[in-house]
Amino acid sequence: MSVMATHESYLVTGGSGLLGQHIVNQLLARKPGANVAVFDLAKPPGFDKDVRVFTGDITDRHALETAVKESKATCIFHTIAVLPGPPREVHLKINVGGTENVISVALAQGVQKLVYTSSASVVSDGHDQAGIDETVPYPSVPFDYYNETKAIAEQSVLSANGRSGLATASLRVAGLFGPGDRLTVPSFMNVLVTGRTGVQIGNNTNLFDWTYIENAAYAHILAADRLSPSHPKFSQVAGQAFFISNDDPRPYWDFPRALWKAAGHTPESITVLPQPVAMVIAVIMEFFCWLMGREAVLTRFRVTYVCMTRWCNISKAKEALDYEPPVTLAEGIRRSVEFWQKYQAPPPFKKSQ
Q1: Biggest alpha carbon distance in the chain?
Q2: Which domain of life is it from (predicted)?
Q3: pLDDT below 50 — which residues of the chain?
Q4: Which structural domain range is residue 159 located in?
Q5: 343 catalytic, yes or no?
Q6: pLDDT computed for residue 134 by the predictor
Q7: Pick the catalytic residue: 116, 146, 305, 323?
């Protein structure tokens, strides 16, 4: 790892979340006793006693300003976001409004660095994207509200670079997963628990990117280090966006099958639903679930997503951030399934601690 900048005070918004906790832990691991604080809705369990925790809503400017001021933050890692699902108004409030609060407070309080957690999907319009880099423009019609609002927030962060001494960078993380995540691993392992591993939507030729959580946290810290004006790569990082992944794209269904295999399961046979057939089924399911006031298991969005090619060229991150993923995809899968079996799996999939 690169050398930590001296006299830094770090504030991690969303520090009780998966990525936020890993950023905090990595900061402390390379310099025990470092000045690290967290801002989140609730106090995370099991944090180091030296980590100061501020509770509050990211849309509450006063609460955020208090945290920045009292922690004497010189660097903010902004990881808070609402995930896909809620109405557009909620995405706008948290993803856009919350980020604008962070920028405004950072400028007012003389914060020197802001590293924003973006998503590889900010340039997605639902069509295939193979080996794309940071020159790809934002889409005129975003794939969903999450992508739309994360892109708006990212542009605000990058536009703030250079104002009042603030240096900013945005990390577009692809397919985040890891031990304790509440979305990716649990969703795929629920397919195993419910006995649906023998169904495949699409032909599985579409390559997809994934990023292990520790690698994503590592990339954030690399970016923060390089936002110091004295760093030789400052000009390559300040005001820039970077795709981050494990640099190991796989056919989409190969990833969940690797998770299931790590849990001791391999499907006996595979029934392939061609994308057009799956789309028709999704339309029917959405209609009848709408009539019954229930959520459809299969949707047009889901079919499009699992059949989409989406992998990124991370050469820019390798060059400017010196980023190389420390944890391989195979090891990340092993660790994630081990955690799931101990703490999240129902019987008979659960293993004793």
Answers
A1: 61
A2: Eukaryota
A3: 1-4
A4: 9-181+207-250+311-327
A5: no
A6: 98
A7: 146
